[in-house]
Write a structure and sequence with these properties.
This protein has 324 residues and is mostly helical. The protein contains 13 helices and 5 strands. The longest helix is centred in the middle third of the chain and has 23 residues. About 3% of the residues have low confidence.
């Protein structure tokens, strides 16, 4: 954590322990700890439990302005800081709860029409097209998409896992992506065979997973959308392992495609995911089934459970998704 005051260090250690109960991704945990530390260091002469909603709001707003971040980022900063003060340290200020509720009030999500989605996808090619198709036709979040591995494909279904390799849910493989995905897998496998022959072929494994070195070189653990090779400090011997494609690559590809398609409103991978949900509801799919596909509300429902396999038998939801 670097050089921090003892009281701040103690608070952050307690926060890290408490965050483990939420089963957030490692990336989100690091961001929340960073924001929590920033809040405490902004008021070095104050006891953390005495900080109020006013200080939290001021800190979040100043940070967003300095980093030129979005309103969504400000909401996340507020959520992290309120979590630290209320859930970890037990701060008594009642205004923190109201601040958290106001931060959760999001603007109406941007939704594209089916025609706009088709126009956007028509401007994309290769892996970018496939990932955008999965964001729309499978309801995948950005990190869920870039972290996909060969082993996560089960026929016409996709098993979604977190950074630790734990199963979160199952969703559907969109019809439009099925044949392109088969061709993509064939090319990817040939590339993997060549790299193994050249002494490479290792891939970064999920955080905290204890497996033999050979597992990282197996075909099933390879990323569907591979990124560059890099030194992996956690591999024990500083091995050169392949990671997944980086998030900004997909973001930029979607934004560029939206401009080329003449879509004036801001578009992101989350816009495609929101559009997927909206279009399913319009097709008559029950809200609870849409939430299951998207993994919405999993944190509120308690510990995650491995979904039961449905095999290849199409469900009513699968039929509704046909054509996506």
């Amino acid at each position: 954590m670097g050089r921090v005051a003892p009281s701040t260090r103690q608070a952050l250690l307690a926060m890290r322990s408490k965050l483990g109960e939420l089963e957030l991704s490692e990336r989100v945990e690091k961001a929340w700890l960073y924001w929590g530390r920033g809040l405490l260091e902004s008021y070095p002469d104050r006891a953390p439990v005495t900080l109020t909603a006013t200080e939290v709001k001021s800190y979040a707003r100043d940070l967003v302005q300095r980093k030129q971040s979005s309103e969504a980022a400000e909401r996340q900063i507020i959520k992290a800081c309120v979590f630290l003060l209320r859930s970890v340290l037990g701060a008594p200020d009642p205004g923190l709860k109201e601040l958290l509720l106001s931060a959760r009030k999001k603007r109406k999500p941007a939704i594209l029409s089916p025609g706009q989605v088709q126009a956007l996808l028509a401007q994309m090619r290769g892996s970018s097209w496939m990932m955008a198709s999965l964001s729309y036709g499978a309801g995948l979040r950005l990190m869920e998409c870039v972290r996909l591995r060969v082993r996560d494909l089960k026929g016409n279904r996709i098993v979604v896992c977190d950074a630790n390799g734990r199963t979160l849910r199952e969703t559907v493989m969109p019809e439009r992506a099925r044949e392109p995905m088969r061709a993509h897998l064939e090319q990817l496998k040939m590339q993997h065979i060549r790299e193994l022959a050249d002494g490479f072929g290792g891939v970064q494994m999920p955080v905290g997973m204890r497996v033999g070195e050979s597992a990282g070189r197996s075909w099933t653990w390879q990323y569907l959308f591979p990124g560059p090779y890099m030194k992996d400090s956690g591999a024990g011997k500083g091995q050169t392992l392949r990671g997944h494609i980086t998030e900004p690559e997909l973001r930029q590809a979607i934004e560029q495609a939206a401009r080329m398609a003449g879509i004036e409103q801001p578009v992101s991978e989350n816009t495609l995911r929101n559009s997927f949900a909206a279009h399913l509801l319009r097709r008559g799919v029950a809200l609870c089934d849409v939430e299951k596909l998207l993994g919405v509300g999993s944190e509120e429902r308690g510990p995650r459970r491995k979904p039961k396999s449905k095999g290849n038998k199409p469900s009513a939801t699968d039929k509704a998704v046909a054509g996506f």
